[in-house]
Amino acid sequence: MLRYFAIAFSLISFVHCSQKNLSNICDVNSDSFFSSLLFRISIKDQSNHCGYKVIPDKIPACSLSYEETHKPENWAQVKLEMETQFELGVSGTESLIQYSLDSVATVLGTGYPAFQGALGAPNGNVYFLPYNAPNIVSVNPITKLYALHTAVPGGVDFIGGTLGPRGLIYLSPHQNNNFFQYNTANNQMTTIGNVTMAGAAYNGGVYAPNGKIYFVPSNETVIRYYDTNTNTIGAVATPVTGGIFANGVLTPEGKIYFIPHDATNIHILDTNTESVTVHPFSFGGAASYISGIYTPNGRIYMIPYNSSTLYYVDTKNNDSVVNAGTIPSPTSSMFNGVVLSPNGNLYPIPYNYSNFISINPTTNQMTVLMANPGVSSYRGGAIGFRGEIYLSPHNSDRFDLLDTKANGNFCDSLRLSPYWNKF
Q: How far apart are CA 214 and CA 139, in angstroms?
């Protein structure tokens, strides 16, 4: 940016030595030409100016705000920074750490199941989102201390949420007709709308580059959104069909892939046009898959729930579906959520599966790690500053993290990016 101002200043100085035409904005000898050009540079307007086009330097990924990382024009820098961290490798073998000796039941003063989903926030904290818990709970990844925040209705009113702009979390209504916004800066909850909906309406959401939070349909067939630009609730014209979706995955093209749970096919929402298409591949329905995640090599990994097969969708090859192997010793209700570590591996979050595992998204190698300490243990997780994953306790009575032993780390821009900081 400074370089462009310097060039423009030099040109202005040169032109000031010559006779000026003040009335013609496209006359390079006019003051209006340069003032208009400077204004376009200051607001990062890349449109043509009198036949000239200013193309600014690419801003490094870690100099972007997290609200800018999912814009298509910034993908090249984001991808480069992610891969740079991956190349730093690991310092050892993963470990499971109980970072607080307080039990979940003691903290909440109530029974289970507690939470579903976790999100990082700009204040550095990780927030656990209520399932039956009476409060939102945060954890400070530096001190490992937790705090209880605003009370919520409970009774599975929400399943998951989405970090939008300015540190605001948008809770996804499940058994509640209200849409809520939670401000992580002041711990205030605000009702932002009310719509009569089917029970078990939505599961999580996705913050899209157009500024809208799209909610993932569960029993609802309508894709609703909250527009953070206009503070209004709207709906996509084309509904989804075929059953429940468990999760949404955003790609750099501005598309959201809704991961089927009881539904059999991925539905793809193009947020540029708000058109919906159906992927032809059948994933089987019957709660086969529970989550998905985008990797910088262009793959969307489908995280199994009841299915034994690990698939990925290759978005760089006409959305072809690739069989990536079989989950070791598969059972039912295996995972719920997945997190990408700075070491480059994927970590599905074990629910009823007996172990933690890692997936290498380059080779598809699956490695069995330590035991899952319980059953119906966790639902979701969020990445910390050094690649540790804060596990969202569901029926687990512990506060645990998975140390992935990454040598690299994600700067806040990437740690909070809508690509990966999601339910």
A: 26
Task: In whole angstroms, give the CA distance from residue 133 to residue 153.
Answer: 9
Instruction: For 256-302, give the DSSP string.
Output: EEEEESSSSS-EEEETTTTEEEE-S-----TT-EEEEEE-TTSEEEE
Span 56-92, pLDDT tens digits: 678 999 999 999 999 999 999 999 999 999 999 999 9
Strands (E), 84-167: 95-100, 115-120, 126-130, 135-139, 146-151, 158-163
Look at residues 93, 98, 86, 99 and name the one whose alpha carbon lies nearest to residue 369. 93
Q: What is the DSSP letter of 54?
A: -
Rounded to an integer, what distance in angstroms lies between the CA atom of residue 44 and that of residue 48? Answer: 12
Q: What is the C-alpha separation between 220 and 206, in angstroms, rounded?
A: 16
Instruction: Tell which residue, 232, 214, 222, has the closest CA to residue 196.
Output: 222
Structure tokens at 136: 């939102």
Distance of CA 318 to the CA centre of its chain: 23
Tokens, residue 34? 């340069």
- List the structure tokens of 294: 């985008």
Strand, helix or coil for residue 134: coil
Whether residue 17 is predicted with pLDDT greater than 50 in this model: the reply is: no
Q: Which domains does the chain have, with CATH numbers?
A: 2-57 (no CATH), 85-415 (2.130.10.10)
331-346, pLDDT tens digit by residue?
A: 999 999 999 999 999 9
**Of 96, 2, 98, 90, whose CA–CA distance to 42 is shortest?**
2
Closest CA to 336 of 305, 295, 382: 305
pLDDT tens readout for residues 373-396:
999 999 999 999 989 999 999 999
Please state whether beta strands 320-326 and 309-314 pair in parallel, antiparallel, or not at all (unpaired).
antiparallel
What 3-state DSSP class applies to 119?
Answer: strand
> What is this structure's pTM?
0.88
Count of positions (residues) in the chain: 423
CA dihedral 219, 222, 226, 227 (to 10 degrees): 160
* CA 214 to mean position of chain CA atoms: 12
Residue type, 35: S
Distance CA(11)–CA(400), nearest Å, equals 60
Q: Which run of H or of E encompasses 31?
A: helix 31-42
Q: 295 — phi, psi (to 5°)? A: -110, 150
Q: Which residues contact 106 (CB under 8 A, 6 or more apart)?
A: none
Average pLDDT in the 96-119 region? Answer: 93
